[in-house]
Known about the structure:
CATH topology of the largest domain: Ribosomal Protein S5, domain 2
Bound molecules: alpha-D-galactopyranose
Helix content: 25-40%
Number of helices: 9
Amino acid sequence: xxxxxxxxxxxxxxxxxxxxxxxxxxxxxxxxxxxxxxxxxxxxxxxxxxxxxxxxxxxxxxxxxxxxxxxxxxxxxxxxxxxxxxxxxxxxxxxxxxxxxxxxxxxxxxxxxxxxxxxxxxxxxxxxxxxxxxxxxxxxxxxxxxxxxxxxxxxxxxxxxxxxxxxxxxxxxxxxxxxxxxxxxxxxxxxxxxxxxxxxxxxxxxxxxxxxxxxxxxxxxxxxxxxxxxxxxxxxxxxxxxxxxxxxxxxxxxxxxxxxxxxxxxxxxxxxxxxxxxxxxxxxxxxxxxxxxxxxxxxxxxxxxxxxxxxxxxxxxxxxxxxxxxxxxxxxxxxxxxxxxxxxxxxxxxxxxxxxxxxxxxxxx
Length: 365
Ligand code: GLA
C-alpha cells in the first residue's frame, strides 16, 4: 500500500493570464488530496473516495467516455483514458481518495485529482516522471475529456509547487522559476465565499473569446505581437468595443503587475506586493468583471483591516475564494470583520482559514 498527495493552489497574482500566454504567480498550498493505491492482481481499477459516496469500478480494457453520471470519477477516468490512448501501461488497482480541499471553490481540487491519479498510475511502472509533461498531459485531459478550456496554471502549480516558494510561470514559453516567499510575521489567509460557481464555465469561455477577439484586432495592426500580454497600453484605442477594451486593459496591466510583483518580492517588500494584489482585484472587478458582490465584499473588507497588506480574488472568479496577506496578530480581527460583513451583505457564512505554501505532488509513504 502506497500513499500520495497532491496540493490545491492559490494564485498570488496574474489572473486570467495563462490562456493569454502571460505571466502568472501561483503557489501550491498545504491543503490538498491524499490517495492510497492498493495494487490488484486482476484487470480492474476501483476508484473510491472517503469524501464522496459515489465510487466506480472499471476493467482496464473498457472504453472510457465522459459521463456526468460518473460524478467526481470523471477526473481520474479521463486520466486513465488518456494514458491508455498514449500507450502508457496502466496498472490494476484500487485508488482511495481523501480531500481536505474545499471543492468547487477555485482552489483547483479537480487539477489535484487529475495530477494525483496520473502520478500514482505512472509511478507504478516508471522510475522518473517529467512533471512539466505531467502538467501538460493533465491540462489536455481537462480541456478534451472534461471539456473545460482552462489554461496550464492549475495543473502546473499542483505538479511543480515548492514549499515556501511561488512559481513564476511564463505561459508563453511554458517555463518556470521559483520565487521565495518570506512572510515573516504575516500569513496567507483564504476566504471562501461558499458561493456555488454555476455560471463559471460559460463566463470563463466568454472571457477567453473576448481576449482572442481583442488580440486579433491588435494583430491586424501589428503582426509581431504573439499574445495579448505583449500589446502596449497605448494601443488600447484600436478597440472600439468598450468591453473588449476593458478585458485587454486588465490583461495588459495585470501582466505588468506580475513583473512588478516579482521585483518587489525579491526585495522582500511585502507592502508593495499587497498594494499590487489590491490593484489586481480592482482590475478584475472593474475591467475583467469576474468578481461579483461576494468576492468584492471578501477582498474589500479584508483590505480595510489594519495589518492586512493586500487582498484579492484568486482563480477564475464568479465565486470561489479570495486570499489576503495579513499580520499574524490581525487574523482574528480580519476573521470577525470579514465574516460579519459578508453575512450581512450576502446572507452566506464564509469560511476563513490560514494556509501555508507547500510542495507539489509527491509520495507520502
Ligand atoms: C481557472 C483556470 C486557470 C486560470 C484561472 C484564472 O483556475 O483553470 O487555467 O485561467 O482560472 O487565472
